[in-house]
């Protein structure tokens, strides 16, 4: 297992090198540059030329790329041309926000999706099954931003049950040592701050988790339907084992393998979904920051953030591969 | 409003969480209310204002965007300011000022008994410290992306690479500062109200290492803490905390030299999405926001929210490349001006209160002339002028930007469609051209790649130099590099004139010359809206977006 993990981690090097080169060329192929983006109507040709000279943007791309690589090895991704702050500092600020939101969305999707998929399969063809199938179809079909607006309009604007956006009530007296607001409330012994952060998480987590939820319901249902007709389940039933034992030991354990794969893939997709969700819910996370950086042609931010997202994506999928071994001993043997 | 909303929220959540957490949360909520209510709905309380972006930095010299300016206006003050809701220059940290006869020296008599938020005394030394700091910026600090307004108003820096308007500052005594210029400029005094020229505590600047720049030449980074953790000015509010990307909190400065602020605190909370800001106001999560979408203003007003119109300080215009046919022919330019039905355009595409423009600067500003040549909607006159021009190829390549909404053109395509219909009605053939605003459209128009185009301008400071001086004082690629020595000379003379009455006359004359020359067709001065919840009072929107929150109260 250890050799497997090391091999996968070593593969990360060439992947990141290739990705960084592609990114670098692609970003510079975009029309315009940070100078015009920063100055808007005030971007005279002289001002643009002066900014490009000061930032070294007038040098050949391969010279710029080499400098970028040398610095990136030292974990220095440069500085944002918009905020003039180190990209690493912006990462430390925004990644916890998105990881917190993504985790909440996954908890929502898995917590509801797996049981719902399981019970739909066990009640195949009955009302719960039909409801979950059509509901999950709707979940996949409804665009994230539309769902986000609807949720916000109903539960925040009309009913006033939940906040319209942000990570915490601006008037809340809270400290944030880790950047994970729910955790911060616990660490600083401020349960009101934790609860407020949870309240702020509910709507964006539902909006972001809706598509993963729908996918997980469908995959779980299909997988459980496959497994329940296997000989070993019938044998277990014939042996007179309790249903609970059959479910836990024989059905779920085998049915969850494809579900875990999907969860791994979905975790990566959460970053793209976060762009829309974070914009609608004024969530100061990676998605919103990258979206704004594209408009600002903020090369350093885009390079650094997209590479970091790629690293996280690879690591999450590695974790999924490792978890196969825990769920299915046959994988360990192979 | 806020408390009600919070209470409902906690009531709902309470059924879903363990009892202990709920009890603790209710305790927290109570604490928040204690902070917020203050004394009987007039003085005290806190206000949450929805900002469209996080400030870049709270150091007026180092940004040029509106969301950095808004809190900076509360923390810092300039030698001069503007009258409430207007553009006229009034004393603030300087009680009076006077230019020398040649217009090269400006003597400022400073207010006494003023202290910065860090306890440092405000005096002439502090004024000169700030001016000398800006003048001696080096490297990337000279970039127009960082110090845009110093570049715009003063030109160059102490290294002399580009000539500077600023020559020096002398503290002749504790309360007298003399600022010298290299050439006469009266726009200088109007510019001093901008955040870029507001006076910061020299002690805080030094302690916060305000000018430290790290990183590499290609990728510089501000390293000082002044603009992030300890921005100390003399304003009615002082910095309290900044959760970057989320909330910025300012609190009342108790030792303020003037009338103290009414609010205990202002919190600027970042909500970049326009519809999200509106919903946050409707839900009671914020108390007010700026840049209200014109389409939302009426609905919000109908729902009981306050909509305040900001006096127009912008101009929307149709520009021409005068090097290209057919725009080199003045009769064609006049024909286009007569062909556009501005009244219909404004009634159809703009909110109530929008004004028709006749000049490239708003009527609120001195120098606006009420007797310029006006090109009323007159299709027959347009056709006559086309015939008189002798131009046979009446094809116009007319550009509009996508993915953008500006105060002077909330919906560029809608403007383009109406103008195009008007032009085709008098015999022009319009070729539609479009590009995303940022950066393709801006690149194209600034380098002369758009023969006919929609654009506009929002003023930065209350001086005609910032409008017609920016457009027409020299050769400008945006308008086809036309050379009109008469207009250029008139604007040079107006900028240098120190007598206010004579300056007004000179700018009026310049506006007449510009209107006769038709370098473009100004058509609109829009009034952006600000929205507030019921019970908020004392906010007076100004044309320059530089209003103070000091007089604002919450019920």
Structural commentary:
The complex is a heterodimer of chains A (334) and B (555). The termini of chain A are close together. The radius of gyration of chain A is 24 Å and the shape is globular. The model of chain A has no long low-confidence stretch (mean pLDDT 82). Chain A contains 14 helices and no strands. Chain A is mainly alpha-helical. Chain A has helices at 2-29, 34-39, 45-54, 61-73, 87-122, 127-141, 144-158, 181-187, 191-228, 231-238, 243-280, 286-295, 299-327, 329-333. Chain B is of the alpha+beta class. Chain B folds into three domains: 1-54 and 244-310 and 532-555, D-Maltodextrin-Binding Protein, domain 2 (3-Layer(aba) Sandwich), CATH 3.40.190.10; 76-219, Alpha-Beta Complex (Dipeptide-binding Protein, domain 1), CATH 3.90.76; 314-525, Dipeptide-binding Protein, Domain 3 (Dipeptide-binding Protein, domain 3), CATH 3.10.105. Chain B is 33% helix and 21% strand. Chain B has 18 helices and 23 strands. Chain B is globular and about 70 Å long. Residues 1-41 of chain B have low confidence and may be disordered. The chains are: A mainly alpha (334), B alpha+beta (555). At the A-B interface, helix 2, helix 3, helix 4, helix 7 and helix 9 of A face helix 1, helix 2, helix 5, strand 9 and strand 12 of B.
For this entry, give a set of tags.
heterodimer; A: 334 residues; B: 555 residues; alpha+beta; D-Maltodextrin-Binding Protein, domain 2; Dipeptide-binding Protein, domain 3; 18 helices
Give the overall shape of chain A: globular
Mean pLDDT of chain A: 82
Q: Compute the separation of the termini of chain B in Å.
A: 9 Å
Biggest interface: A-B, 78 and 78 residues
Short précis:
The complex is a heterodimer of chains A (334) and B (555). Chain A is an all-alpha fold and 334 residues long.
């Amino acid at each position: 297992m250890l050799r497997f993990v090391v091999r996968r981690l070593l593969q990360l090097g060439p992947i990141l090198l290739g990705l960084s080169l592609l990114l670098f060329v692609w970003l510079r192929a975009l029309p315009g540059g940070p100078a015009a983006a920063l100055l808007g109507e005030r971007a005279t040709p002289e001002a643009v030329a002066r900014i490009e000279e000061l930032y070294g943007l007038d040098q050949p791309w391969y010279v710029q790329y080499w400098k970028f690589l040398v610095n990136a090895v030292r974990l220095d991704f440069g500085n944002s041309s918009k905020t003039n702050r180190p990209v690493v500092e912006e990462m430390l600020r925004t990644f916890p926000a998105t990881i917190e939101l993504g985790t909440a969305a996954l908890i929502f999707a898995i917590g509801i999706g797996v049981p719902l998929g399981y019970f739909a399969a066990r009640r195949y063809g009955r009302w719960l099954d039909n409801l979950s199938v059509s509901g999950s179809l709707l979940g996949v079909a409804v665009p994230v931003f539309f769902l986000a607006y609807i949720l916000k309009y109903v539960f925040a604007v009309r009913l006033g049950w939940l906040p319209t956006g942000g990570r915490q009530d601006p008037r809340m007296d809270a400290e944030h040592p880790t950047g994970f607001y729910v955790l911060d409330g616990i660490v600083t012994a401020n349960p009101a701050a934790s609860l407020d952060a949870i309240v702020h998480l509910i709507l964006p987590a539902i909006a972001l988790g809706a598509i993963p939820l729908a996918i997980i319901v469908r995959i779980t249902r299909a997988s459980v339907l496959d497994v329940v007709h296997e000989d070993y389940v019938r044998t277990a039933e014939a042996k007179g084992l309790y249903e609970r034992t059959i479910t836990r030991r024989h059905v779920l354990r085998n049915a969850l393998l494809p579900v875990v794969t999907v969860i791994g893939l979905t975790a990566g997709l959460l970053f793209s979904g976060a762009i829309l969700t974070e914009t609608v819910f004024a969530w100061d996370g990676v998605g919103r920051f990258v979206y704004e950086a594209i408009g600002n042609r903020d090369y350093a931010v885009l390079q650094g953030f997209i590479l970091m997202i790629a690293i996280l994506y690879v690591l999450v999928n590695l974790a999924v591969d490792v978890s196969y071994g825990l769920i299915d001993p046959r994988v360990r043997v192979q | 409003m806020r408390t009600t909303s919070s209470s409902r929220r906690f009531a709902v959540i309470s059924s879903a969480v363990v009892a202990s957490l709920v009890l603790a949360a209710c305790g927290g909520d109570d604490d928040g209310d204690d902070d917020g209510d203050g004394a009987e709905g007039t003085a005290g309380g806190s206000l949450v204002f929805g900002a469209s972006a996080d400030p870049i930095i709270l150091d007026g010299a180092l940004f040029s965007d509106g969301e950095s300016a808004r809190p900076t206006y509360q923390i810092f003050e300039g030698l001069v300011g503007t009258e409430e809701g207007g553009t006229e220059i009034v004393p603030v940290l300087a009680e009076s000022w006077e230019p020398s006869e040649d217009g090269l020296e400006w003597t400022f008599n400073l207010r006494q008994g003023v202290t910065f938020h860090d306890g440092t005394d405000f005096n002439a030394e502090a004024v000169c410290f700030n001016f000398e700091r800006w003048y001696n910026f080096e490297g990337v600090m000279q970039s127009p992306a960082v110090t845009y307004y110093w570049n715009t108003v003063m030109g160059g820096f102490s290294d002399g690479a580009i000539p500077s308007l600023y020559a020096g500052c002398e503290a002749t005594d504790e309360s007298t500062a003399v600022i010298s210029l290299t050439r006469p400029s009266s726009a200088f005094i109007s510019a001093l109200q901008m955040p870029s020229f507001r006076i910061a505590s020299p002690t805080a600047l030094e302690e916060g290492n305000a000018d430290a720049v790290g990183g590499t030449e290609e990728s510089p980074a501000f390293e000082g803490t002044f603009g992030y953790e300890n921005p100390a000015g003399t304003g009615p509010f002082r910095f309290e905390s900044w959760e970057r990307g989320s909330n910025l909190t300012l609190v009342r400065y108790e030792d303020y030299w003037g009338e103290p602020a009414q609010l205990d605190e202002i919190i600027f909370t970042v909500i970049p999405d326009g519809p999200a800001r509106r919903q946050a106001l409707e839900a009671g999560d914020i108390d007010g926001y700026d840049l209200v979408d014109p389409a939302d203003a009426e609905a919000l007003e109908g729902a009981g929210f306050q909509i305040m119109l900001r006096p127009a300080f912008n101009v929307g215009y149709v520009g021409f490349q005068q090097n290209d046919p057919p725009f080199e022919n003045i009769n064609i330019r006049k024909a286009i001006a007569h062909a556009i039905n501005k009244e219909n355009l404004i009634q159809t595409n703009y909110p109530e209160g929008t004004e028709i423009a006749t000049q490239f600067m708003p009527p609120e500003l001195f120098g606006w002339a009420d007797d310029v040549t006006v090109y009323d909607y007159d299709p027959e006159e347009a056709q006559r002028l086309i015939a008189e021009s002798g131009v046979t190829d009446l094809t116009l390549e007319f550009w509009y930007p996508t993915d953008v909404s500006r105060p002077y053109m909330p919906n560029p395509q809608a403007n383009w469609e109406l103008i195009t219909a008007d032009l085709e009605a008098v015999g022009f053939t319009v070729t539609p051209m479009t590009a995303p605003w940022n950066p393709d459209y801006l690149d194209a128009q600034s380098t002369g790649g758009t023969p006919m185009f929609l654009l506009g301008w929002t003023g930065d400071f209350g001086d005609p130099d910032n409008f017609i001086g920016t457009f027409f004082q020299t050769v400008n690629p945006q308008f086809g590099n036309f050379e009109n020595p008469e207009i250029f000379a008139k604007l040079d003379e107006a900028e240098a004139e120190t007598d206010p009455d004579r300056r007004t006359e000179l700018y009026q004359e310049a506006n007449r010359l510009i209107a006769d020359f038709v370098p473009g067709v100004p058509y609109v001065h829009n009034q952006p809206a600000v929205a507030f919840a019921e019970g908020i009072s004392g906010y007076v929107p100004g044309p320059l977006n530089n209003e103070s929150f000091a007089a604002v109260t919450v019920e």
